[in-house]
Amino acid sequence: MAVRDPAMTDVARLAGVSHQTVSRVLNGHPNVREQTRLRVQAAIAELGYRPNRAARALVTGRSQVIGVVAQNTTLYGPASLLAALEQTAAESGFAVSVGSVRDLDHRSISAVVERHLAHRVAGIVVIAPVESAGEALERLPKDVPLVTVDGDPHRPMPLVTVDQAAGARAATQHLLDAGHRTVWHVSGPSDWFDSAGRIEGWRAALTSAGAEIPPLVPADWSAAAGYRCGQMLARMPDVTAVFTANDHLALGVLRALHEHGRRVPDDISVVGFDDVPEAAYFIPPLTTVRPDFGAVARASLEMLLTQIESVSGGALRRTIAPTLVARRSVGPPPRP
Amino acid sequence: MAVRDPAMTDVARLAGVSHQTVSRVLNGHPNVREQTRLRVQAAIAELGYRPNRAARALVTGRSQVIGVVAQNTTLYGPASLLAALEQTAAESGFAVSVGSVRDLDHRSISAVVERHLAHRVAGIVVIAPVESAGEALERLPKDVPLVTVDGDPHRPMPLVTVDQAAGARAATQHLLDAGHRTVWHVSGPSDWFDSAGRIEGWRAALTSAGAEIPPLVPADWSAAAGYRCGQMLARMPDVTAVFTANDHLALGVLRALHEHGRRVPDDISVVGFDDVPEAAYFIPPLTTVRPDFGAVARASLEMLLTQIESVSGGALRRTIAPTLVARRSVGPPPRP
DNA sequence: AAACCGGGTGTGACCGCTAACAGACAGCGA
DNA sequence: TCGCTGTCTGTTAGCGGTCACACCCGGTTT
């Protein structure tokens, strides 16, 4: 029943010009007389004409869509990144199509990438925080613009990443500066590059301060794991400073410490990573490291767009420095 | 330099059939000889052929993409919903294109919807939790399948929504059952339907229990607001039970109570809403109401697909009941 | 005066696919 | 034997844009 949407020829007929002229007006082509342009624009408005992106994508071979591959988009980090990407892309006239994967293995990633390629997306952003994702990407067709975020620093692909090591160094140093003799680290899953970078930064800070390096406390990203690790740490009287790989872990640690009667920051200091909006309302307010997701999104898109627009590549790597946010969960170590 | 992607005709030539037969194989059309089908599939595999969705979208007039309009996708609720939608859509062979808006006013929403329409999306899901969103939707072209989520219950549009009132009733009743004489409520922003529904449920539960209705404590969705409200509530000795409109508010309230030396649940009981993953690790673990985002996503998509596939509409309204998750933040009122 | 230029516009082909129709060929009842 | 079915396949015409090109025309240049 619905009448066919107006097409370019309809606009052209109404304006008394050819469809090509309409196209020129639409694309801001210079050689159109002002008067003609106005006539065409009036016709467009009158008909409520809306250019068909599918047709455009067909003839140009590329749509104005950017495909994103992500996992676990309910976590604060990925969700923020996704939102920032969408925002930034929209400003450049691109739409964003998300493809979530349950696991970051070769099969899942390829499947989603295939889906994006079938839509002839202009470019793809892969949030690839684990090893297995990297492998999947190497086998991909090489003619589609691609940027990885939080991916493998040792792989020769365009990469934008938060400087995890720098953030971790800052966190650890902050604790050392407060007077602690050493700092324990509750880390994220071992196969994530984020984890690896944070561990590396933590070790580096301790090493360069000549501090003893305590054993790593491995966990995942959840508050539940933080709670378990916290229960252990709470029983160790010589632990006075803990740096957790993210804020959720810190939350779990805080609760465990609280239940064991160890006060924060009087007995133990805690620093997190991510600066989730709630971190300021933990008990006590959490000192943490804030990555700039907006900057990551902007850098990714910029890299993608240079790839899309030209053959010559710009920078292949961009690192975004995070900042430390000091709150009340850090204090000097207890006097013995 | 990149060689043109193989098209249907290339596959056809290699398989020694017409492009139309290739199309038939791709679309699972019945009348194709088994042997031919195999030949075509072999050719597809050999060339690495990938059907061009843009071309398909052009000729059919609809792409296999669903447009989503959302605001503030970094919040836990919207992010979960988005992820669930993506997941569900993928299972039906649809991609999801997100369009975030900063504000849910007429202009912003229309702009994003226009963008989706230009792409000829098959349908649109609008997460429209505030009044101003509803107005924008009424002026939209009526021939595009549309579903609103968490929208205005009084507007005659296809709507899927969490049963906010039921959740709030359950939370309030749970506190009353624990022996509290009445329950205070820290509410979300007044222009959100979610807030309104939760307030309504809270009032209803108190009314039907014959309990006194304390003044509403208005806030927004943030932990910061929860903290401010909590500081006030902590100073009122007769407050023994608080129901907050979401878990972040609860977090803020918990901290304020803690700082004022009021123990939870011994002195005051608290119930939240959303069941964010961290709620189990608040101090103390938070009793809360869990909406089923997966169910919301499934219902939305189902409604959208029936609209897409046929003219006759199915149900115009679906309400998803949330469940109460009991944890340690609720106990009996203190003995006077 | 002929040749040249460049701004403004129209013409036709084509992008890769689907829909509608047409044809070939086998089986089968009349 | 002649239709008449039904299965399988090919042919053709678009969908709504962009691109390459041709055209017209007034103003310079040679």
UniProtKB/TrEMBL annotation, chains A, B:
Alphabetically ordered keywords of this record: DNA-binding, Transcription, Transcription regulation
Alphabetical list of PROSITE patterns matching this protein: HTH_LACI_1, HTH_LACI_2
Stretches assigned to the HTH lacI-type domain: 6-60
GO function term, MF aspect, one: transcription cis-regulatory region binding
Keyword match Transmembrane helix: no
Family matches, as InterPro entries: HTH_LacI (IPR000843), LacI/GalR-like_sensor (IPR046335), Lambda_DNA-bd_dom_sf (IPR010982), Peripla_BP_I (IPR028082)
Name of one Pfam family that matches: Peripla_BP_3
Descriptive protein name: LacI family transcriptional regulator
Highest classification ranks of the organism: Bacteria, Bacillati, Actinomycetota, Actinomycetes, Micromonosporales
